[in-house]
Design goal:
The chain is an alpha/beta fold and 496 residues long. It contains 22 helices and 15 strands. Helices cover 46% and strands 12% of the residues. The strands form three sheets. The protein has a seven-stranded parallel sheet, with helices on both faces. A six-stranded parallel sheet has the order 12-11-10-13-14-15, with helices on both faces. A two-stranded antiparallel sheet has the order 1-2.
Length: 496
């Protein structure tokens, strides 16, 4: 659902080259953990140009397929998740009870682990912002990697060993290997490998010092998830993946979690197709949606909202949630919206946090556009005053359905992009029949006109969205409560 099961050329290259990287450099390890397995995200960014150059190179693809016969994402997951550290028994494992989680999960901890020991990793601005202003009990603490990394000094013997291994590989591969012959590759590798070894040291020291019993994160292939999941495997400490946004393969493969706490049936089916055993997957809902909805201001008066923003009282309100596609894609959608100006309709444009387009300039002085960021208005408040939502493939489609709003699925032409459009992920709403699908401006105008004039059609579209929602999200009223129960059970199991 969130990207096709069969590997297209882009994903075959991405994962075959990753396997090549793992195989050639598996001698680079620190504390029993293979460092290339911690570098997946960095490596994928490194090979961008090579992948794009060879995506249609059939002779090369044929050669690589003979060497790495992967046909599906399941094959890639199986091949890449084999690199695991040797297990090491913890001394007094039943004393390891601390929960390690990202700062963005602070509300979960405050609500359900207030008397437990919790350490928050502050890896991103979102993590830091989440705990800002929160009154944390004395048994809670925070951890910032940058505060500890400068003081780490790798043993001279280990630095020498890593350097010698890289030097030897460079002499063997620099003239013959199709990817690693690039001189800048070994410069890149040396720049990252020692830093990654230090990160392994820091996170392992943290986990052992704080006696961590369960590790929780929301993305598996970036730091700290890629490192802490391997440390979890080494010491038999469960690493739990709790995704908060829709994932595509590039964000999760390879994954080594002990447990996956997912939103609903679609998410579970998607993971199973990627080779994750059903026993590792629990359907819990999405606590991010749960907490966001709790902020909803139900006292908002729609008429007053319209007066405040100079929206005619007879206008319907449609919200377009943008995504950080190439500028031309969002400009194309905006052009579609402009051609509905004769309808009694005002569009709220809600830019994605990573979308840097200047919509005030692009929309011009037309009176039927209102740009509202998350700083201007909470998303659920925005959805409360909205009659229907338009998006390409944003999480907000699900949140609109939660708020009982019909959905228009936009399908503009999106060019291939190494990161943002490399498989069918951006068409999952269409494939799931989540709402009305529109492919050009005249169709959009016609469908909106029908939505605002035909109550039966509005109801039909609403019902379509609700049917999609049932398979997308668990009906659990409190995902955070279910998640906390599972985490606590995992923590207790180590004692038995």
């Amino acid at each position: 659902m969130f990207g096709e099961e069969k590997l297209n050329n882009h994903y075959f290259l991405r994962y075959a080259l990753t396997k090549e990287f793992f195989d050639e450099f598996n001698g680079l390890n620190y504390s029993g953990i293979e460092l290339p397995t911690c570098l997946v995200r960095h490596f994928h960014l490194r090979i961008k140009e090579f992948v794009d150059e060879n995506i249609s190179n059939e002779p090369f693809l044929t050669f690589l397929k003979l060497k790495h016969p992967m046909q599906s994402v399941r094959d890639a997951q199986q091949a890449l998740s084999q690199n695991k550290p040797v297990r090491k028994k913890l001394y007094n494992a039943n004393h390891y009870k601390t929960y390690l989680m990202p700062g963005r999960f602070v509300q979960l901890a405050l609500d359900h682990f207030s008397t437990d020991k919790v350490v928050f990793t502050l890896t991103s601005a979102a993590d830091t912002e989440a705990i800002k202003g929160k009154k944390l009990p004395g048994n809670f603490s925070t951890f910032q990697l940058g505060d500890h990394l400068p003081s780490v000094h790798l043993p001279a013997a280990k630095r020498k060993q890593l350097s010698q291994f890289i030097n030897k590989k460079e002499s063997l591969l620099s003239e013959s290997h199709f990817l690693f012959k690039d001189p800048s590759f070994f410069t890149w590798l040396r720049g990252y490998i020692f830093r990654m070894a230090k990160m392994v040291h820091v996170y392992e020291s943290l986990i052992l010092k704080e006696k961590v019993g369960v590790i929780i994160d929301h993305v598996d292939i970036t730091v700290p998830g890629c490192i802490t999941s391997l440390i979890g495997l080494k010491y038999d400490i469960p690493y739990v993946s709790v995704p908060q946004v829709l994932m595509t393969d590039r964000s999760i493969i390879p994954s080594r979690a002990a447990k996956y706490l997912v939103w609903g049936k679609m998410y579970k089916a998607w993971l199973i197709k990627r080779g994750i055993h059903t026993s590792k997957i629990e359907i819990v809902g999405n606590m991010n949606f749960e907490y966001a909805r709790q902020k909803l201001n139900t006292s908002i008066d729609v008429g007053e909202f319209k007066r405040k923003h100079n929206i005619p009282q007879n206008h319907y309100i449609a919200t377009w949630t943008t995504q950080p596609f190439e500028k031309a894609v969002n400009e194309q959608v905006l052009d579609w919206l402009k051609k509905t100006e004769m309808l009694p309709l005002t569009f709220i444009i809600r830019p994605h946090p990573s979308d840097n387009s200047d919509y005030k300039q692009l929309a011009g002085k037309k009176g039927n556009f209102l740009i509202l960021s998350r700083e201007d208005m909470e998303l659920y408040d925005n959805l409360y005053v909205t009659d229907f939502l338009l998006t390409i493939s944003s999480n907000t489609a699900i949140e609109a359905a939660i708020m009982k709003k019909p959905l228009i699925v936009l399908k503009p032409r999106i060019p291939y992009h190494y990161e943002l459009n490399n498989n069918s992920f951006n068409y999952f709403l269409e494939n799931a029949s989540a709402g009305i699908v529109v492919k050009e401006s005249a169709e959009l105008k016609r469908e909106i006109e029908r939505l605002i004039q035909d109550k039966a059609y509005y109801t039909k579209t609403y019902n379509q969205g609700q049917s999609f929602l049932k398979s997308m999200i668990s009906p659990e009223k409190s995902p955070s409560m279910v998640i906390s129960r599972i985490l606590r059970e995992l923590n207790e199991k180590k004692s038995t």
